Amino acid sequence: MGRPDGKNLIPVINAYIKHFSRQGFPILTTRDWHAPNHCSFTEQGGPHPTHCVQGSRGAQFHSDLVMPPGMMVISKGTAPNKDARSGFQGSSLADRLEDLNVKTIFLLGPATQDCLTQTIVDACKLGFNVIILRDAIGTRPIADNFKEVSQAGALQATTSDFGIH
């Protein structure tokens, strides 16, 4: 959550977490959790600068984020020689959601355009109902890929749709 626009989203993300926690919904989060020599890093010939290195400050969640008890953290991009754009790729996310009998995913948080879009598309392909919490994500990712995520079947909502203030 180190992106500049990410900090501005934290109050809204915290409001959603509080709301869904009170409703008894499971809260899961995905994170990049890369080895220092990850193939996606420019130093290894990849397209991205070094980011989210396992155990580093850059891989930590923002200190203002209110993490509820029992929240599951799903790591992706852990294999040094394989990139993972989607939260489902090379992770236990689909298994955890199945174990919890989740049918609908409410998706939020700052993420890169490509990772967010791929996670949404993969969730739809796996048969989940996907609702993008529009006011709790960076604005560019969905605006740039609205057609793709809409065609995949994702819907959008905001705090006002849930009566969250």
**Roughly what percent helix?**
25-40%
CATH architecture level-2 label:
3-Layer(aba) Sandwich
Average pLDDT number: 89
> Could you give the order of the helices and strands?
HEEHEHEHEH
Q: What structural class is derived from the secondary structure elements? A: alpha/beta
Query: Do you know the CATH topology?
Result: Rossmann fold
Q: How many domain regions?
A: 1
Q: What general form does the structure show?
A: globular
Name of the level-1 CATH class: Alpha Beta
End-to-end distance: 23 Å
CATH homologous superfamily heading: Isochorismatase-like
* Stretches with pLDDT under 50, minimum 5 residues: none
Number of DSSP strand runs = 5
Treating each run of at least 4 consecutive H or I residues as one helix, how many helices?
5
Word description of this protein:
The protein has 165 residues and is an alpha/beta fold. It has a single domain (4-162), classed as Isochorismatase-like (Rossmann fold, 3-Layer(aba) Sandwich). Helices cover 35% and strands 13% of the residues. The protein has helices at 4-22, 93-99, 113-125, 139-152, 159-162; strands at residues 28-32, 72-76, 104-107, 129-133, 155-157. A three-stranded parallel beta sheet has the order 3-4-5. Helix 3 runs parallel beside helix 4 (139-152). The relative contact order is 0.17. The mean pLDDT is 89.
List the helices and strands and how they pair.
Layout: H1 4-22, E1 28-32, E2 72-76, H2 93-99, E3 104-107, H3 113-125, E4 129-133, H4 139-152, E5 155-157, H5 159-162
Parallel strand pairs: 1-2, 3-4, 4-5
